[in-house]
Protein 1
Amino acid sequence: MTFFRTHRTAVTVIAFVLTYVVVKLLSVLPLVNGGPLLNGYYIQLIALAGINIVMTVSLGMVNGFTGQFSIGHAGFMAVGAYTSAMITTVWLHTSVTNPWVGYPVFILAILAGGLLAAAAGYLVGTPSLRLKGDYLAIVTLSANELIRTVIRVTNALGGPRGLGGIPKFTNLEVVFVFTIVSVVLMRNYLFSSHGRSMKAVRDSEIAAEATGINTTKQKVFVFVFSAFFAGVSGGVFAHLLQFIHPDNFSFVKSLEYLIYLYVGGSTSISGAIVGPAVFTVLPELMRALQQWRMVIYPLILVLTMIFRTEGIMGAREFRFILIPQRQRKEVSA
Amino acid sequence: MGQFLQQLINGIQIGSIYALIALGYTMVYGIVRLINFAHADIFMVGAYMGFFLAPVMARVFGGAFIPTIIAAMLITGLLGFIMEKLAYRPLRYKSRLSALITALGVSLFLENFCALPFVFTPAFRKFPDLIVARNIPIPGNLGLNISNVLLLDVGVSVILMVLLFWFVNKTLIGKQMRAVAFDKPTASLMGINIDVVISTAFIVGPALAGAGGILYGTTYGMLASPFLGIWPGLKAFIAAVLGGIGNIPGAVLGAYIMGISEAFATSVNSNLGYGIAFAILIGILLVRPSGLLGKFMPEKV
Amino acid sequence: MALLDVQHLTQFFGGLRAVSDFNIQLEHGEIVGLIGPNGAGKTTVFNVLTGVYTPTKGTIVFDGQNIVGKKTYQITQAGIARTFQNIRLFSQSSVIDNIKIAYHFRMSYGNTDAFLHTRKYWQGEQLVDDYAIDLLRLFHLEGHAEDVSGSLPYGAQRRLEIARALATKPRLLILDEPAAGMNPAEADELMEMIHWLRDKFDLTILLIEHQMRVVMGVCERIKVMDFGETICEGVPEYIRNDPRVCEAYLGKGA
Amino acid sequence: MRRLFAIILVCALVASVGVGCKKAEVLPTEQVVNMGGIFPMTGGSATFGTSSKQGVAMAVEEFNTAGGAMVGGVKTTINYVNEDDTGAPEVGASAAQKLINQDKVIGIVGAVMSKVSLAVAPICQAAGVPEISPTSTNATVTLVGDYIFRACFIDPFQGTVMANYAYNILKVKTAAVLYDNGNDYNKGLAEFFKAGFEKNGGKVVAFEAFTDEDKTVDYKAQLTKIKATNPEFLYLPNYYASAATILKQARAMGLNVPAGGGDGWDSPDLVKIGGAAVEGGVFSNHFSKDDKSPKVQDFVTKYTTKYGEAPDALAALAYDAAGLLLDAFKTAGSIKGSDIRDAMKNTTFSGIAGAYKFDANRNPIKAAVIIKIVNGEQTYLTTVNP
């Protein structure tokens, strides 16, 4: 019976795998003018969307579900990106030519990046999570800029020259696995006793304490694992772009994730998937508009917020996100 | 010693401009609990108004500075008013965060719209010389450097701040603003027209930012692009939080602390100066979680 | 030995003395009321007992364990649960999740199980689901189990808040004005429920209440506070006739 | 909700198919192929992008007017597709993917900033499409691979040129540097100036930084510190707007020593913003508008007529970069990336910034000129050969 309930997770995974197969086929089969429908351009967009989805879902864990207000998420992404890039590129000189060595190193490197980002999250979160609302926002934003300043003045990390020559380990498969695993892990956490505690902290911190929840610990833990996923995203991002620069991770970038999250719907994982997916692709679709592109884009944003205040998804979830309720047996009391 | 004083003066000058922007952030926040990210862009519009209006004003009035600053304040005030009506009013009784994202959207819109070729264009602009910069001789041999522009910056800021204090504390609408900031539902039950109060905040705050824009242009003589508001805006916003957001004297205090600490941090290590300012901010907030003058109000159980 | 033993409890807020030399001993199974006019310091006493404030002076021994300086969640885990004067539900969570949240600190699985949805997770979830639905049934809320708690009617919210407090399996239950906003009929039901709670869950109950009918009807012992001081203590009949109590509520010469 | 999602999905598909179907028009005797440009058209660096785009557009127009190229006997002209990178590396990368995969460009001119070029370069290299950056001075850009070229000097050359000029010609013994530490161009020039100046025996008495030109306008804190060290020379390897603003503030506080900079100074706005403060300033550049050669004069006149403003260094280099690419295309007579690359490697293109020849790392070997601001006009002083 236990298996039957976990079956839903399996269904979700199968759905994702099918999506992957379709995308892969479209990117290989010569459908349009002898070339695939999904050429390198679309593949890169899908990859960026996947990375943005993980960033947004992890930000949603802190902002949407735990009710904290962090606007420095790109800082943790930077920590992960630089750590993993240093490992694969500068210290170990791995390359894609030998995938049997390259990929294990890459995976360990992005995990190391995630762990270091988590450590940074712990350092930032422990003292600052007792701050509320906008004050917390400012501290996280400052931490973001502080991380960037440190990178910029550290010549070993490339300083303002950036860090280039990173092997391109991130391909469609990596992005799919990374996105699905990350989202499923966070979804699982959310639909657990700990996830319920997160929402309790959001709804009433005082009541949460009074029901025996160590709210400080819960908040810091969420902040730390959110930073972890941001760090891993950073690693995947670095190995997609093959070049990273401190400006990739400025507070403006953090604000972008904030926009993705709230436009999608901050209290739903589905929203944190739809928001970045739509708003990563949208500006690219509007390239033909030239300079008008960046005028229309914010207009769409504002109109979305006015007409769908709680975001595109609101608090609703796609069915595949939800954990099925078990059928309760009718017990006579 | 001379260098120390000079850095203090440098900090005060830039702090004055931050203060004018920070006041708008804090006023709007106090009343509608919204971080109006677009405020920085109103500041930018104010600066550009100076660029476009100064020649006209000089022709019409002879002198340019005072008519330009007044005209810029009127225009930015109007812009703030329209912005609130169109973008924020529909969201007023809904989620604060939706309003925040809307503010980000409005900010992006203003920046990119103003950068269009037939609006302000993204090009560098030389700001007209509204006053002729001169150094003021300082007795003693500390080598201090004080220009009339500096005195103008500080003077105009102080005058506008005093006017604002008078406005908030002595006029009826100012008192209503304070009442609304304190407790919106009760204020509304007392017969205060919330709409009018909010509109006023969205006129007065942006008008101050407009004045800040003119001072910015006069001081630095150049408008880089319609994106020029982002960083002064961010610093001013941080200053407002530092002082205790929603608190008017706090915003001014925060702005001067921000300006002065930036000047000193830069003089200690210009490579890290930018980061040091943020470190100071984190330090202050960890010690005083509600800013310097903000009241820490734990939730009542 | 008393379940709760509070000695010389004093609480200052800046220069303001909110509670002064407060003493109380609760025996197992007692229902005790704390009354007094507004601002007498009753809620402050509750907040100190539950660790919201650390007392300026005094000792609080619960079940042989000094709980001064402990955090609220630690005190809850030690066995003191409370409700709030103005209801504080997890209003965006479902009714049943409110109960499950209160069970969190007893939950058998950890963070890793939560991320991976291991067998342990499913076992734990099944356990808590059974537990929560049974508890809801006792409070006639099982039909609302999946509703958003913020949308419940007022009376049901009150019941849910008590049920949630009970889900932490406390030995001492502290009720902050449970009858607030209730009509006489509802208040009667509440009184019945308080007795039933005590018996069914083997509880000791301390409550603040303004409705004298409720206090007098349900409490076995009453303590009266005014301006942070205890002015009188005893069985309901004694309190009812004490002139100091009358004076505190109605003013001198009344 | 479902419907909204479906609509978005359909839109995306239609758009992708629509764009995917667009391809070069094939005519029996004439054909048009695409050439790409990646520049910041929106955001804080849009001015740089506008100049560059105008330079490229002019080069393409001239190329087409002159008859284009013959590819396999077919007359081939160029359609210039310009994409916006907003100044962000990942947007630049997307733009490169689009140009290569959708527009099938024969080559890309761009980007302005090294950080964007470095994100574009691996994509071009992997796809075998030549990229030539007009203005990315970071030495690592062309090291990405053999399809990546540039039309400008790299940092060491310019920094050293000005260090030598200051020490040997201006005879100054002490210098102060104030640069943007958020930008590799500025930092590179600053560091090589320092190294060169100290190698000559001079002393850099102050080496101060500020953060990000588009964010900083107040340099008084740094200048106060610099002034206390009494330098004889001020090296400001920044873009024209910052350089002019710094000099204004320096002059206002009585720091009246000669100043110098790099090619970032080359813009009519330098004098417009700086006025008297920039008078006497010297900077290294790729060409001088004073140059009497008809090529330069022709370019300056045509550009000014066409766009109503004098060309700056960015426009000139973009014009040359596009010229280089188109010339190689014509020489190769092929739309294959590898053919164009090989032609580029052996080019002897003569642009307005002199004769181009690439070294082993695909950096141009060409002379620098030193220009002085005299009476608000750029005046040619001397040429320095590498």
Protein 2
Amino acid sequence: MFAAFLQYLFSGLTSGAIYALAGLGFAIIYNASHVINFAQGEFIMIGGMASATLVAAGVPMPLAIVLALLISMAVGVALEKFAIEPARNADVVTIIIITIGASIFLRGATQIILDKEFHSLPAFSGETPIGVMGATLMPQSLWVFAVAAVMIVGLWWFFNRTMFGKAMLATSHNRLAAQLVGVGVKKVLLASFALSALLGAVGGVVVTPITFTNYEAGIMLGLKGFSAAVLGGLGNGGGAIIGGLIVGIVEALASGYLSSAYKDAIAFVIILFVLFFMPNGLFGKRGTDRV
Amino acid sequence: MTLLKVENLSKEFGGVHAVEDLTFSVEPGHIHSIIGPNGAGKTTLFNLITGVYTPSAGRVLFQDRLVSGLKPYELAAMGMSRTFQNLQIFFNMQAIENVMVGAHLHLNRGFLSSFLRLPAVVRGDRECRARCTELMEFVGLAKYLDADAASMPYGALKRLEIARALAAKPKMLLLDEPAAGLNATESREIDEVIKRVAASGITVVLVEHDMKMVMGISDHITALDYGRKLAEGTPAEVRANPDVVKAYLGAHA
Amino acid sequence: MALLAIVVAAAPIGFTNSYFYDVGVNAMFNAIVCVGLNLLIGYAGQISLGHAGFFALGAYGSALLTTMYNVPPIGALTISALVVGLLAFVVGRPILKLKGHYLAMATLGIGIIIHIVLKTESKFTGGPDGMSLDNFKMLGFTVMGDRMWYWVAGVLLILAVWLALNLIDSPVGRALRAVHGSEVGAEVVGVDTSSYKVLVFVVSAVFASVVGSLFAHKNGFITPDIGSFFGSVHLVTMVVLGGMASVFGAVVGAVILTLLPQVLASVEQYEAMILGVIMMGTMIFMPKGLLPSLLAKLKSREAGR
Amino acid sequence: MRNLVKWGATAMVCAGVVALAGQASAAEPIKIGAFLSATGPASFLGEPEKKTLEMYVEKMNKAGGVMGRKLELVVYDDGGAGDKASTFAKRLIESDKVDVLIGGSTTGTTMAAVPLVERAGIPFISLAGGVNIVEPVKKWVFKTPHTDRMAAEKVFGDMKKKGISKIALISEDAGFGKSGHDQSMLVVKNYGIEIVADEVYSPKDPDVTAQLTKIKNTPGVQAVFNFGFGQGPAIVTKNFKQLGMTVPLYQSHGVASKDYIKLAGEAAEGVRLPAAGLVVPDQLAATDPQKPVVTAFKKEYEAAFKSDVSTFAGHAYDGLQIFLAAAARAGSVDKEKVRDEIEKTSGYVGTGGLVSMTATDHMGLSLSAFHMVEIRKGDWVLSD
């Protein structure tokens, strides 16, 4: 009984950590620009596809991964430079449509440049399941947790301990003030896209051995990541992580104890209820309208 | 009869009292000014009176009816209307349409009749447009009759808010710093408008920093500091109050 | 308005066969949904990423009621629209308290939940493989064939546009636009903003439901995919691309995005890339949408003369 | 101002119409229309199908065409969406004026086209598995792949042979898996087998250990049967192994492509599934009439595309061949005559099996067309 519960929990944590990484990317860009980047899932896909293709082509795995991360970052920077930057003052909905357009474009391009098939990467440290009190866990899941944790710590350090990170945070709180003290808003935006593209690609690389990847893999991850970020409260990195874990665990418990057909629906119902009572998500800033 | 009664009203935000145990009343037909240094809680008070915020304690009575807890639109229907310190203009609409929204309560609001464009709606709209044109002229916006709100200068928008509030045919009009950010000429013009509004029988509650204006047009003044009432009375009385001089004028001197 | 009628009436001159009529009908159906959705998104400023769900509910409502309970099509359409309206009313209250991206998330959730239900309850809906239904019959008269559907859709589109134009330029419509401009500003002059938001949410949902019912009858076969997240995104894209807060803009957006895949079908695999570039390009260079941006350009050129 | 709006709208509509009109043209060749899911969730069905059709049309044209006429292929990508499929089918019939329709990679896209195909009266050969495509029989609609019901029957037959009577079903909640699930439920009783656990997953779920744990903890489960395609079954297989489940795992014909083995890796060892002879041409008995056909097809396909052949490619090949043979017998592409001839197809040896259609059977395959295969050392092993 407990073993089953633990297994559901592991299952949920594995999915949840993946969603959390996706959600974190949303949070970073939202923080810097108040843009919801619906192409976030595509960064994950590009990370996975690029590394898998390179490995298949005979490139050693560590090099392939580094290259994949660089490719994804380049795509992120290009997206910001050519699509977001020129439309900076547009409506929120307009920018949403731009990022959706970008995701369609990136999927289309990947499908032509690479292919439409599913790809996988070898698991980083074998495929021998680890038993924990009657439940099992794949070593790769541990990799996902570890990478997620490293990312979170790294981001915390970056935003709180480095000049540039602090500047990025400042911009998100008050763009005008940041400009006054000489923080380049443009540079911050660019950096935020590069950073979340990197984050997405890292996520893409570590989850590919578990979930496989193809040119459409980013759609679902993007959607779940968005859910995670909103549930946690937009712009709150920690919130996105917890949001992702909650979504993953709810799905796993729902399929374990209720109905696997309705597990996604159950997750959304829970998100809806949270929003009804906490309209800014679990950890969102509760702003009273100043009038 | 007293038009507005504020009794022991308090509002706190996370432990900080923006308004504390405040009591005063507004007599019909008066121009009643609320003064106080920045952060004294004037705008919070307005938000409490008009239903934008709900009070933490105390109550508000409008025309002897308990109104705290009611929604702004319900208060509007009872004859309370206001403007904002931070403009709340409908920038996606024309200037005249902004004013016409102000007349919302006095128009045929039936959904089906709007959808089908029934003659009654057309007639109502025509009359409304004519009246709103007059209102815009009244506040001195004659040259903006065809303008989009988004293309108007700041000073004009301040008046547009007044016109919109007037279109609701209020018994009491609350003006939140109508002269802020205006130059001397514009300020004088607003002064005129307020006087004329009051002359037409509408009670005016005014928050304003421009002391010259306040002292010149007010019938009654309530002075606040740190959310509490510091003094009240006629302009002459308040001006002579040593607490006010110390807290308010002193702070500025 | 009159010109829209002329366009609708004259377009078939170029139609050499019923495939063109079919695309025309789809374009106009989408246009009607978008006119309704634009009231919500463009005028009242409330986003919805779940309207394909309402469209699908209308379609499945009609399919279920006509095939399983022998309800006449017009009755099925009406009942479905009422149920969808009621559903939109019930969920609208709590959802529309949310703002911006949170509202987007909530509507997206509603849409996805509807989609999952339609997919899963295969006893009623046939599951992912879809279900079929009969022609639209009314008063002993059967709407059949693409030509006849074309004229039905054309008349309905003109009716929808007329209704929308009426609404926008009325006290109710101004109140809706005021909600977009400033909710507090609208509240303090007596506009019950939350009721108006719910109202327009319901209206746009009913538009989608009615069109969904008709679409189901026209195609004779429906799959749950019509209610997917992409369907909703597609609809929003039409509205935004064509021009928010512009009734004709929504029509233009719907027509373009319905035709585009048909035109791009010949470039096969490049379709997605080109579609993405067009979406991004339009929004970058015309952030207010095609129609309003073009009009503004024309206007400034005229003024410059 | 308002006029401008309208003129703008007119211009758009006209531009669209002109663009569409540019597509239409009529010519001498025999026109084959196909709508396939070359992108979208079913792209690994549509993609090889499309490649196959293109390859063989080109090949036949090089050889001088059919009946002295060239072949012309028009393919549209419906992305797996039913409404798109229906519009493209109409376009193929009305604008491109094709002589035959091949396609509908999935049951949903096929069924979306059925009403208008029946109205227009054009031979239509579907490449999808759903049994409801040909049951009840529709005058103009045929199909080449085995039905999902047959796959289920083959699997249950195999289980029965092994004395298995209690199983768990886990299926994908999209078209293929859902339909397979429903058909399995329908026929399972005929084999004296009871489904004691019934779980589903979404096509893109990253992890299904929760569902499998539930199955693992259901008492009496003697085997697990997974109905799905794409990456889902590979994840199921890996998770199955992870949980240390030891009962036999059966997959459906939806995974009969090498990609599955590649993705699932070692975890796929010992998995059993029903598949057409195409996946194991070398292992077929020398007397098997299918042997030369599938050997040749596999060789040609893999030479042309440098990728492993899948049974889905074979469905398209069979569809094309059945049509061309019928047209040859009819001596023309007259739609009515071709339809009649397709219905008379008898003893055609295809990649999917021996096809003999009748007025009441528009598929013409029997259970013998399926072989049970087992995955051993990363390859298919015939195991009937």
